[in-house]
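Lab manual, section 2.4: Encoding a predicted structure.

Procedure: take the sequence of the chain (244 residues), apply the prediction step described in section 2.3, and record the output as structure tokens. A sample record is shown.
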Amino acid sequence: MMSARVRQAPTTEAAASDAAQFILQILRAAVEKRGSASIALSGGSSPKALFSRLAAAKFDWNGVHFFWVDERAVPPGDADSNYRLARELLLEPARIPHRQIHRIQAELEPEEAARRYLAEMRSFFGLSAADLPHFDVVHLGVGPDGHTASLFPDGPLLADRSGIAAAVYVEKLKSWRITLLPGVLLAAGQIVFFAPGEEKREILQRIWGPEYNPARWPAQLIDREGKNVAWFADRAAAEGIADC
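Recorded output:
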């Protein structure tokens, strides 16, 4: 269902520009208020335009800390690494200090990588045993099957609202991933979905449609239950989807 929280732009580049400005406003406000800000990034092919726009912005990145929503179980230099994508298109061009980068050490065994990532977040956010981290911004994408983060249809982690991060074996992809869990995504101050391209249109029709089935389309869970959710899409992705 189309709603006021869906920002449709004519092109992918325009949608990326809109999303970048939206994200930067939130990060700037957080830094001004607390002296620091946190953002969790997603990977895949869709964020390329967004990362490039963020990197090109005239923005003071001092105090902005970068985490990852999920990561494939590959070394940081691997072509499939979400960290590598962000490093090449955003972190290096924007000259982000190493102390502000908190990557998932996915070259380790998945369970160990998840354990260390959890410890990193507990330390950074000063969490007690029962606390969840509260990111200022969580950036998400959506796959053609409706997955977001590494939360896949009928996956074992969809009901976990108390955990922070976990390793998960994705049977359909025959691969391991490390991912933030639903409770963390839902606790974010702002959730930003960036989903441009004609190939996203069919799944967006499902996610925004009247049927609520998050086990089938996990992105629905975050879209419907997140406290502040904004979608950025281009005309190719969103045009023709009925308003609500």
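Check your result against the sample. Residues 111 and 167 are 5 Å apart (CA to CA).
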